[in-house]
Amino acid sequence: MNLKLLMAALPFTIACAGLGQESYLISEEQEISMGAEFHQQMLEQMPAFQGDPKVLQYVKDLGSRIAPHTDRPGLSYTFTVVESDEINAFAVMGGYVYLTTGLLKSATSGAEVASVLAHEMGHISARHGVRAMETYLVTQGIVSLIGKNDWSDIVSGALDIGSGLLFSQDQEREADYLGVQYALASQFNPWGMVDFFQYLQTLEGSSTDGGILTGLGELFSTHPPTSERIQSVADQLSSMGIANNSPDLAWESDISLSEITKLLK
Q1: Cβ–Cβ < 8 Å for 125, 137
Q2: Were 81 and a residue from 47, 49, 141, 187 both cysteine, which residue would form a disulfide, CB within 3.0 to 4.6 Å?
């Protein structure tokens, strides 16, 4: 297929792909390999948390509790805590999820953190990063490089413009929807997502200091607006009959978030 026809066909194919389906250009094996390259290059630009190992273990335990309930339970997920006061979270294709220490300090319950993780794992389950990278490869005219399975230059170029890491309005909505499902299946109260979005809404318009974290800051995205996301998730939960005070759903894991945040001070 020539490049013009490929560019015409790709958006339609991506839009019609459902959860768990192979994308048009990048296989799951290639996704995992490319994600590992993203992870390596990103850690060269942002500091991974080097403090008390209990902090990272806490995040890993929450993520491991959610992973079996995602639409890609067989994928190996990697969780990283980033040393930054910025309140941020993001996901990379292949199973890589990142939270900042600033987010952990700002959240008020384990359910909030779990909901954020579930949202990011929703992006991975729906292969949003893969689809963005496919579009990037086509528009840059470098589809032929896929066959070489050498991702260094591809990932470096993508990172320069944030390709594969930032998502559309509809993809954010889908990740919110999936995050609710995953948190609920993990027996965390998904109203934690509403609580955290409400907190983010109070911070909208706050200044940031630039850098890679700000560039990847999808939780602060106003597309769709936070108010819309709050209402959408609240409507979803209400339609499912999930109460904020449901006794069957947890706001904390075995270790409370407050115990973890003490280790960050």
Answers
A1: no
A2: 49
Enumerate the H helices of the chain as residue ranges: 3-16, 28-43, 53-66, 101-106, 110-125, 128-139, 152-161, 169-185, 191-203, 212-215, 226-239, 257-262
Instruction: Measure the CA–CA gap between 155 and 33, rounded to whole angstroms.
Output: 11
Q: Which of 62, 108, 103, 61 is nearest to 81 (CA)?
A: 103
Cα–Cα distance between 92 and 216 in angstroms, integer? Answer: 10
DSSP SS3 for 255? coil
Mean pLDDT by 10 residues, the chain (265 residues): 30 39 78 95 94 98 98 97 92 96 96 97 95 90 83 90 82 95 97 94 65 56 78 96 94 96 92
Count how many domains the chain has. 1
- Domain with 15 in it: 3-262
In angstroms, the CA 83 to CA 156 distance is 22
Instruction: Write out the DSSP string of 20-72.
Output: T---SS--HHHHHHHHHHHHHHHHTTSPBP-S-HHHHHHHHHHHHHHGGGSS-
DSSP conformation letters of 68-87: GGSS-TTS--EEEEE--SS-
Q: So what's the pLDDT on residue 37?
A: 96
